[in-house]
Amino acid sequence: MKFIDEARIDVIAGRGGNGSASFRREKFIPMGGPDGGDGGKGGSIWAEADRNINTLVEYRFTRMFRARHGENGRGADCYGKGGDDLTLRVPVGTVITEEESGALIADLAADGQRALVAKGGKGGLGNLHFKSSTNRAPRQTTSGEPGEELRLHMELKVLADVGLLGMPNAGKSTLIRAISAARPKVADYPFTTLHPNLGVVRVDSERSFVVADVPGLIEGAAEGAGLGHQFLRHLARTSLLLHLVDLAPFDPEVDPAHEARAIVEELRKYDDDLHAKPRWLVLNKTDLIPEEERAERIARFLKEFAWEVTPMSPVFAISAINGGGCQPLVFAIMEHLQQCRAAAEAA
Predict the structure, then answer these.
(1) Residue 240, Cβ neighbours under 10 Å: how many?
(2) Are 268 and 140 contained in the same domain?
(3) Is 205 left (phi over 0), alpha (psi -120 to 50) or beta?
(4) pLDDT tens, 328-345?
(5) What's 39's DSSP letter?
(6) Same domain, residue pair 172 and 125
């Protein structure tokens, strides 16, 4: 199935039914008085997060969603039936905004979470409500109100604890295969990953975290080069970013430090909040560097990249293809996430 993580739809809630102007007419009751009932309310439109849905593909092909109108009121104090509500089921992590204003309508981050996206119109009042001591035969009624009409922008932001960031062919998919049960496509050419992949990393029987692998960035992504920035939204909910760098590119003219700086710049152009997230440096493909040269190559890269190694911005040298160095990385990530969760609970 094609991965669809963005859609635009029109929603139209139901109109309320009109109130009825009716009078009681029975034998031997010549002046029974008003008995017109109210109109039913229009159906509303709700959005509900469903963990069994992975993409927004359903909303790419069906663009218009209407709820039912309320029925009109009738005589004999009969109220009109309300229109049935319509529920739009979306993946967990979907953010819904109003297209024109950009106002946030719902952020459905938990399974089963519901949000009202378009409210149905109220039903009109029947003439039963207008009787009084001076108006015994009212013919006034009110019409049902129209339901809300909105154009919505639906955007899926996957729920992950850790996001992988880097140039195409930096080894992001290989790393997620090495540390989780996910099996994304791996090949020796760039842009192998065309849509986000999620992997659950189990540290032990009671501890785990989720990693998101998104298609690689290249210099000029802000201008639409490569796949552009379209998948960076999936890193917005993460607590930690891993910046993967190919330390041993096949092309000798490729400068790993220049590519790493380009990734940081594209991140800054996309979103200041994402750029400010904790980011760790992961130097991959060290197995392709002779052992006696690795320390010197790593030191030279850190100097050229101007990366200051601190407890908040550590450096890990790994070989994702054979798992070398991956275990210390996984344990460090788990410890960092536990500290973040403890701080969030304390707050």
Answers:
(1) 20
(2) no
(3) alpha
(4) 999 999 999 998 888 878
(5) P
(6) no
48 and 126 both lie in a single domain: yes
Domain final position from 156, 171, 196: 156
Grouping H, G, I as helix, E, B as strand and the rest as coil, residue 72 is coil
DSSP strand E in 64-148: where? 64-66, 86-90, 94-98, 104-108, 114-118
Q: Do the Cβ atoms of 11 and 149 come closer than 8 Å?
A: yes
Q: How many other C-beta atoms lie within 10 A of the C-beta of residue 104?
A: 10
User: Which domain range does residue 60 map to?
Assistant: 1-156
Residues 59 and 22: their CA atoms lie apart, in Å, by 44
Q: DSSP readout, 279-298?
A: EEEEEE-GGGS-HHHHHHHH
Q: How far apart are the first and last CA of the chain?
A: 41
For residue 277, count other CB atoms closer than 10 A to its CB. Answer: 16
198 and 152 in a common domain: no
Number of domains in the chain: 2
Lookup result for tokens 């007419």? 25
Region 52-75 average pLDDT: 89
Shared domain for 190 and 247, answered yes or no, is yes
In terms of domains, do 183 and 120 share one? no
For the stretch 102-152, pLDDT in tens is 899 999 988 899 999 999 999 999 988 888 888 888 889 999 999 999 999
